[in-house]
Every structure is written in C-alpha cells, then in structure tokens.
Amino acid sequence: MSTVTALTIVVPIYNAAEHLTRCIDSITANTFKNFELLLIDDGSTDNSLEILKEKEREDSRIRVITKINEGVSKTRNLGIKEATGKFIMFIDNDDYIEKDYIQTFIDNCIKNDADLVIGGYKRVNKSKIMFSDFPRDCDWGKYVILAPWAKIYNRQILIDNNILFLDYPIGEDVYFNLKVFSNTKKIVSIDYVGYNWYFNGHSISNTCQKGFNKDIDILFLLDKLIEAAHGQSDAYLKYFIKRYYVWFLLFSGRQAHRNDFIIEHKRIKKWISDRKFDSTLNPLSNDLKGEGIKNRLIIFAFRLLEKSYLIPLFSKFYCKGTIDYKSKQII
C-alpha cells in the first residue's frame, strides 16, 4: 500500500443531514481508494455532525473537522490548508459522484501531466436528470463551468501561489478558478460527466434573491476577478466578465426597484469604460464553443438593449420591486 496520499477530497458541510450519507457513500464507494476525505462541519445545527462522526468511525480515510460557522469559502480554505494529497478535489454536501469519478480524473491528470482537469456534470433532482453539461476542449471551455467541483487540482499550485477562495457572498469560486487559470501551466478539459449536482430547493444557492444585496458590491467583486486573472484582458475573459455582470443584474434585479437596476447598470458600465474592458466578442460567435444557446441569446439581447440605450425601458418591465424612498427598503 502506498504511504503517500494521492488525493484529498474536501467536503464543506452545513446543515446537510438529509443528503449527507448519499454524498459520503458515493465517495467511499469509488474504485480509486488512495485518498483522504476531509469532512468539515461549518457549525451545523442539525444532526450532520453525528452522521460525520459515524462515518469517520467506519472508514479510516475519513477525517472530520469541526469549526464555527464562517461560510463555505473559509471552510474550503481550511480544507486546502489541512490537505496532504498530491491532488485535491471539492465536492458539495448535497451532491454525489459516480463510482469511476475519481479514477477518471486521476488518470487524465497523470496522462496529460496537467495541473487542472475540468469535467462535466449532471443537474439532477429526486426523480430525473434535468440537464448535463461538459467543457469543450477550446479556449472558452474553461470558463463554462467555474464551480470548484467536477475538477481535480494539483495542490502544489494552490500552495505555491497562495490560491484560496474569496471570502465574499458571491463569486468566491469564480475568483478561485480564475486565479488557478492564471497560475497553471496545463489545463485539460474532458467530456466525462460523473458529477451529480443535486437540485435542493432549500439550499442557499437556490433561494430567491430579494433585490440587490447591500452587502454585495459588484464593482469590488469585478476588481477582485481581474486581480485574480493577473490583469489579463483577452477576448474570452472580457466576454466572461460581461456575461457575469449581466447574470448579476438579471438575477438580483428581478425583485429590485427599476431605479436600483439602472443605478447598478450605470456603475458597472462606468467600471467597464474606465478599465477599457468592454467585450467585442459576438455572443453568437463560433469561437464560444460550449456556450449554451440560452446564454448566447440573453447576452446578445442585453447587448442590443445597451447599444440602443433601452436599459431604462427594459427595467420598467423587468424589475418587480417597489421601494419606500425614505427607508430605502424593498416592500
């Protein structure tokens, strides 16, 4: 038996008792066995910790770490610091993987001498596969899936370059991966789909955004993303930034007042102009292999609205929030 741990798998856990056993069992049942599994409880208030302790007793590869509730970024960062494996993976506590998942990523990492291997995923619920996606082997492909799962990383790259997740309400995984991209010699994309991203209607990521969050400054985040990319400004990064801010406006702005939507859009456009970071890449371009048709059409339409100065009119119909101008509260 090898004395060197090939892989560390980090699972951040918070109030995940309902699906936790499925997640852990899918990992321990994998055909590849030489790994350590760090189960990090982020101050759960349900019986997640009881399940974790039981699993730790059952399998010597499992190590349970407990901490106060600080959020997923600090929890993953603790996993990076505690890891001993040559490679590292991240899995979310509601999700599960196929039996050949680890072996497939390890094999592709070694075969290609890669620092990062990116795979695909299935979006699943209790009864069916909702959809699936995988990155194409092209320059745009690495931007398609920016979650930390469905990937394997060379841990030394993270250590040498002090790559950690950004402690911020949104964009923490995007920041992390952009920083990996800019410090990585070789990235490989594979068309393997072995990660099951479970749709949990009660999870934080699936709850409805009630307007623009006062704790989120999109300009701060955009600055951090550019910083993570080491000041690069290629066409794909510029397009990604555009796609990201459009997503932010549409997601947060749906339940916002139209005035707030317009203000946020103006702030972003000034940021783009000041940094000369506007994207000229056509969303319908063949260069964007792997970009979904829905994303293409949304970005294309939003760009037309911007060029036609129709964002104020669009916001009048799109934004559903009302506002008390004295208290500045959505009602």
Automatic annotation (TrEMBL):
Source lineage: Bacteria, Bacillati, Bacillota, Bacilli, Lactobacillales
Protein's UniProt name: Glycosyltransferase
Keywords from the named record: Glycosyltransferase, Transferase
Glycosyltransferase 2-like domain span: 8-126
GO MF: glycosyltransferase activity
CDD domains referenced in this protein's UniProt entry, alphabetically: Glyco_tranf_GTA_type
Keyword check for Transferase: yes
InterPro entries listed in its UniProt record: Glyco_trans_2-like, Nucleotide-diphossugar_trans
